């Protein structure tokens, strides 16, 4: 039995074109870890969409809506107004892409201005994160630890808030692995009283998560240029574009988490992603695929499956 058939034994896994995926996977496995990089979204991708009770979890931005209601009610109210105003445009297929991008830029920029105006301290945010229902997916820690062990770059493209991502990773892993690089919206804090005074530029929203937003001379740039194979993880249709600008890309397996509105979104997601994980709160499948690269000395998946 091929690895694809083995994966499809999980009821939550859907693959529209198994032969294509198996060919891609064979190439990635044969080339090994030294030719591989991981591109991943964070909110509802590395993090859970639902907790063990079936309740919807938070994302990095919504922490500032939900966790500030008592201590910063004016901030919470302003952010909720912005969500109601701009949220419907994010998945609206009736408007042009340029119009959608304009709405997303406004949403993110106005939200960040509200957060800065509220004068939150780093300690405030750490407390919000500690108390918030925002959790890594099951097996996410093992996934990241294997990436670290095999020296595979993990680029996290997130339209969320990078400081919150760092806090979540630090809490779960005890550190930020050197192979893990976060491209996101970061809050800068002043030295006097550790108050948030601005956000980094450019603003990274849901429609611009790819290498075009990597600014400056990053230490890992040369490393990823030499790695032609990609495993991409996302929960939004926009996430399939995270590999834009990866100049030496050869083979990419794109894994999508379809977290909600399953019936109405299934066909679109099935076309966009190679592997679709339906209502799944685990990184079990990406971890399983990543482990296969340990067998890069083998030339075909049948040999791997017969181990």
UniProtKB/TrEMBL annotation:
Extent of the signal sequence: none
Keywords attached to this entry: Cytoplasm, Hydrolase, Magnesium, Metal-binding, Nucleotide metabolism, Nucleotide-binding
GO molecular function: 5'-nucleotidase activity; magnesium ion binding; nucleotide binding
SUPFAM superfamilies (alphabetical): HAD-like (SSF56784)
Keyword Cytoplasm belongs to the record: yes
Superkingdom of origin organism: Eukaryota
Catalytic activity: a ribonucleoside 5'-phosphate + H2O = a ribonucleoside + phosphate
GO terms for biological process, alphabetical: nucleotide metabolic process
UniProt-annotated location(s): Cytoplasm
Catalytic activity, EC: 3.1.3.5
CC annotations in GO: cytoplasm
Membrane-crossing residue ranges in chain numbering: none
Key word Transferase present: no
Entry-linked PANTHER family: 5'-NUCLEOTIDASE, 7-METHYLGUANOSINE PHOSPHATE-SPECIFIC 5'-NUCLEOTIDASE
Record family assignment: Belongs to the pyrimidine 5'-nucleotidase family.
Protein name: 5'-nucleotidase
Lineage: Eukaryota, Metazoa, Ecdysozoa, Nematoda, Chromadorea
């Amino acid at each position: 039995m091929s690895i694809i058939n083995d994966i499809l034994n999980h009821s939550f896994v859907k693959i529209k074109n198994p032969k294509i995926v198996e060919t891609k996977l064979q190439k990635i496995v044969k080339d090994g870890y030294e030719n591989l990089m991981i591109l991943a979204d964070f909110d509802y991708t590395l993090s859970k969409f639902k907790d063990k009770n079936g309740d919807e979890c938070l994302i990095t931005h919504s922490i500032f809506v939900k966790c500030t209601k008592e201590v910063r009610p004016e901030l919470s109210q302003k952010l909720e107004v912005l969500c109601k105003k701009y949220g419907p445009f994010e998945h609206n297929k009736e408007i042009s892409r340029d119009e959608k991008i304009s709405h997303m830029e406004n949403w993110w920029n106005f939200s960040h201005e509200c957060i800065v105006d509220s004068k939150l301290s780093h300690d405030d945010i750490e407390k919000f994160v500690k108390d918030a229902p925002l959790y890594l997916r099951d097996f996410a820690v093992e996934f990241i630890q294997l990436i670290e062990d095999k020296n595979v770059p993990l680029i996290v493209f997130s339209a969320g808030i990078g400081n919150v991502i760092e806090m979540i990773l630090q809490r779960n892993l005890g550190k930020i692995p050197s192979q893990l690089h976060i491209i996101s919206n970061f809050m800068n804090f002043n030295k006097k009283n550790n108050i948030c005074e601005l956000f980094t530029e450019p603003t990274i929203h849901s429609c611009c998560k790819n290498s075009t937003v990597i600014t400056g001379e990053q230490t890992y740039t040369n490393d990823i240029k030499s790695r032609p194979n990609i495993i991409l993880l996302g929960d939004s249709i926009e996430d399939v574009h995270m590999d834009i600008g990866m100049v030496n890309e050869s083979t990419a397996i794109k894994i999508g988490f379809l977290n909600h509105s399953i019936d109405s979104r299934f066909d679109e997601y099935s076309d966009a992603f190679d592997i679709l994980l339906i209502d799944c709160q685990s990184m079990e499948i990406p971890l399983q695929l990543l482990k296969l690269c340990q067998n890069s000395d083998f030339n075909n998946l049948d040999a791997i499956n017969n181990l």
